[in-house]
Structure formats: C-alpha cells, structure tokens
Amino acid sequence: MVICASPQRRQSTGVTQGGQSKGKSAVAKARRNTSASAKTVQPPKKNVEPTQEELAAVTIQRATRGLLARRERVRRQKEKQDYEDLMDRLEKEAFVALVRREQEEAEWKRKKEEDERKGKKEEQLLRTRLLEAAFDGEAEEVLAILKEVSDRDTKRGLGLDEAGKRQRLLNQLCMINITDANGNTAVSEAAGGGQPEVITLLVERGADINTRGAFGRTPIYRAAFGGHVGAVQTLLQLGADPRTHADDGSTPEQVASEEAVVATLQNWDLSATDSMLTKMKAEEQRRAEEEKKQNEAETERGKQCKRANQKWPVFSLSLKGEVEQLQKEHERCQRELQKAFVELNKRITEHDTCVRKGMEEQVKVTLQVVHEAEDVLAKAQIAAHEAAGQLSLAKLTLREQSGGDAVLDRGGVRCPVRDLEEVLIKDVGGKIKQDGRWPLLVDTYGQAATFLRYRDTNYLDALHPGDMQPDKLRLALLGAIRFGKPLVINMMEVDLFESVQNQLDQVNPGYLSLVRSTDGPQYARTEFMLDRIEKFSLVLVTKQRHPPDALLTAFYPIHVMLPEPKK
C-alpha cells in the first residue's frame, strides 16, 4: 500500500532541507572566522631567562649605585664633621674673645671709676680754689675757674644748642653756688673778705645773694660783722636784705663792727630792697616756668614716641653730650684706621710686585715701608679700640637708663653662630624676606665672618682695595646673582658703610647690564635662572659693637651671640 504525503507535509519537508543547507554554510563561515582568529591571537610565550651579559650589567649597576651612595654618605659625613669642627673652633675662639672682652670691660670700669674719683678730686679742688679766690678778692682767678668749668663741658661733648646752653648755665650756677663744709657760698666768702668786685661778679652770674651759711648768717651779715663798708653797700645795691636774722636772732645792723656800716644799714631805703627782691622772685618764677615748659615738651615727645611704639630714653643732657662727643672721636679714629688699612694694603701690593719682578734692592725698601705702615696701623687700632670702648660704655649707660636695645628696637634679631645656617642662609620662617631689608651681621668676635668664608658665598673684604675694585665687585655681584648665593662684604671694625654704598652705587641697574662679552659663556643670558636669582642676597658684616644708626636702619640687623658654655 502506497501512502502519499500531503502537500503540507511536502512543503514542510522542503523548508527543513533548505534550513539545513543554510546552517551548514553558517557553520563553515564561523569555522573560517575561528581559524582566522586563531592565527591572529598567539598563545603567551614562556618566561625567557636573562642572559649572562644582562645579569652582569645588573650586577655592575647595583655595585655602582652602592659605591656612589657610600661615597655620598662619606662626603656628607665629612661635611657634617667639618661643620661641627668649625663650630667647635668658633666656640673656643668666642670664649677666648669673651674672656678678653670681660677683661677689657673690667679695665674700662676700673678706669672709669678712677676717672670719676679724679673728677671728684678736681671738682673739690675747684671748689676750694673758688672759695679762696672769692675771699681773697681774686676776680681773675674766679673767671679762670668758671672758664675751666666751661671747657670741661666742651670736653664732655656738651653742645651749644638750646639744651646745651641751658645745661652749661646750670653747671655754672652749681659752681658759683657751691658751699664749704659749713654751708658758706662763694658770695658769702667774698662778703666775709670784703670784696665788692667779686661779689658783683658772682651775683651777675646768678649767685644767690641772700643764701644762709653757717649759723644762718647771710653774706650781708658777714660783711657787716667784718666791718666792710664797701661790701655792705654793694650787697645792698644788688638786693641783699638787711632785715634777715641769724640763728641766734641777731641782725646785720646789730653785729656791725663799724659805725659806717651801721649808718649805711640805717639809712638804706628798704623799698629799694623790696623792689629788687620782687624782681629776683619774678626771675626765679620765669626760670621755673621755662623749666616746666621744657619738662612738658619732653613729656609730650615721650608720649608721641609711645604712641608710635618707640622707646623714649630718659637721660641727663651731660651724658647725651658725652655720647655725642665720644661718637665724634670714634668716627675720627675710624677714619684714621681706614686710612691706615688702605695704606698698608697698598704697601703690601707694592712689595709683592717687587718680589715678583725680582727687584732685590727695591724689596728691602718696600719691606721697611710695610713695617712702618704696620706700626701706623697698630697705633690706629689701639686708638680706635680705646675710642670704641669709651663709646660702648657711654652707650651702655644710656641703654640701661632707657631700657632699649639698638638691634631689637630696629626689628632685628639675636642669633647664635650655630643657627646662622637656618637664620641667614635658609631664612627659616621667612623673617628676612618679610622684612624686605638685606641682612647686617653684627659680628663682634668674627665668628660669622669665619663661618661665611667656609660657605658657598662670594666673600669680599671691604678693607682690601683689590676686592673693592669696580670690576671685581661687578663680577662678585654678577656671580652671586647667576649662581644664587650670598654676596658677603665684610667691613671689619671700620665704619665703611658710605664707602661700600658708593661702590655699589656705581653698578648699573638691571643685572643683565652687568654682563660683559669677556665674562664667558657661563654668564650668557640663557644661564640666568629665576629660581637661582631668587636665592641671591647681599650680606654686610661688621665687628662694631654699636654700628651707626643709619646702618641699623637701612639693613636687617642680626646680632651674632656668643654660645653658652657647655656644662
């Protein structure tokens, strides 16, 4: 029996066969793509062992790095040790300098006390001379003594301005009104000796005509007791009051030893005395008003300084005048010292030139000249040292009275030598940068100068003419800017601020204008990097204990302190 498939069945079978055909082609295509992918993506290779040459190179590199690291460590350790040795040496030198300074200060104090004793002795001698001259009527001797007082004020540096004149007048009045052990003044002595000329001389210069001496006796009392008619008349005309009483109640008229004296006292118009006493009282009030105004002016200036956060020193005019006079003497000695330094350097240069050229005859002459210049320098150093010591003591007294500090009052700081690296070189905290002024090292004992010599700085000696030549200074400044290092100028113990300032003023503005074609490729325009330029600084060093105010104001002062002794 034949069974036929329906049309639907046949149609279904045909579709199935076509689908199988298409599926086979898709599988084949997928196989071809898989085969292509297999050809593109390779399996990972196995780790390849390094060759002997590569292992040797790594070993060499490792050993080289280790060697360089060890060398760097040794270098840094040596640098640290050298720095520690330098600091130890500076500390030892500082202690020696400290002992020397203490000895010098003790010597200065001893000398000052001796001068004070000598001054008191001279003062007592002047008083004795004045009293004796007044009693004996030696007017020229009295004038000579008053001139000695004025000359002494000038020697102490008392000026001729308003304040100086007032102090001079006060000193004259103090001398004129001095008393002996019994309280008798020069006018009283002149009255007791019957010396009208000396009485007039003293009263015209401010002597108190009615002062009381021994037993309450006035000058007119003593003149009347001695029977000196001329002295009594002069005293009455100058304002002496005949109504005064001694301690025992007696009056000049009662103790008069001459009838002429009694008659003079009885016939004297007391209204004239009252008039003169009124004038003298008015003069005293005028002087008191002037003194009051002066004190008020001083007080007002002190308030202004206080509002400006400044300290107002209170000291006597004589002490201020002494400081001014000592300052002038110090400046004069500084000029002489600078001149001696320059002259010695010139003579040394001449001698070195003769030695280099083999000029034997001239060498003997130049060597002798060098020795002579050294002697002149030694004398100038001694004089400058003495002047600086006297000025230091005077300024110390002023500071003790005012409670001020020259460095701290001008925004400066104190710094031990061991901290100079952080304070000066690294500027930890940025105080120097914030202040805006170049640093000034007040290096009394030379520690900072030695420290900076061993640092990477351009170091110049302001006392050496060769270092301050314009071209040498230009190259030092240019190199400090180019390589970002400090330019250090050491002025030693001489006041060379104006000289250094004049030398630096010759430098043209703009650092690139300093470059010359002969300076070499290292100073080409492209070699100046901003990060290095910003590290440049100008540092001045001075050994003066009390630098000039202009220097302390223009620069940022750093007082290099002595290290504390190790216990």
Task: Give the SSE map.
Layout (H helix, E strand, L loop, with lengths): L6 H34 L11 H85 L2 H17 L6 H15 L9 H8 L2 H9 L14 H8 L2 H10 L13 H4 L3 H9 L2 H38 L9 H41 L2 H43 L3 H4 L3 E4 L3 H6 L5 H5 L3 E4 L4 H7 L4 E4 L8 H14 L2 E5 L6 H9 L24 H4 L3 E6 L6 H6 L1 E6 L6
Parallel strand pairs: 1-6, 2-5, 2-6, 3-4, 4-5
Would you give an account of this structure?
InterPro entries: Ankyrin_rpt (IPR002110), Ankyrin_rpt-contain_sf (IPR036770), P-loop_NTPase (IPR027417). ANK repeats lie at residues 182-214, 215-247. Residues 1-53, 281-305 are annotated as: Disordered. Pfam families: Ank_2. This is IQ motif and ankyrin repeat domain-containing protein 1-like. The chain has a six-stranded parallel β-sheet. Residues 1-24, 36-41 and 305-317 have low confidence and may be disordered. It has three domains: 118-288, Serine Threonine Protein Phosphatase 5, Tetratricopeptide repeat (Alpha Horseshoe), CATH 1.25.40.20; 317-402; 406-561, Rossmann fold (3-Layer(aba) Sandwich), CATH 3.40.50. The protein has helices at 7-40, 52-136, 139-155, 162-176, 186-193, 196-204, 219-226, 229-238, 252-255, 259-267, 270-307, 317-357, 360-402, 406-409, 420-425, 431-435, 447-453, 470-483, 497-505, 530-533, 549-554; strands spanning 413-416, 439-442, 458-461, 486-490, 537-542, 556-561. Helices cover 66% and strands 5% of the residues. The chain is elongated and about 145 Å long. α2 packs parallel to α5, α5 (186-193) runs antiparallel to α6 and α6 (196-204) packs parallel to α8 (229-238). It has 21 helices and six strands. It is mainly alpha-helical and 567 residues long. It starts with 6 loop residues before the first helix and ends in a 6-residue tail after the last strand.
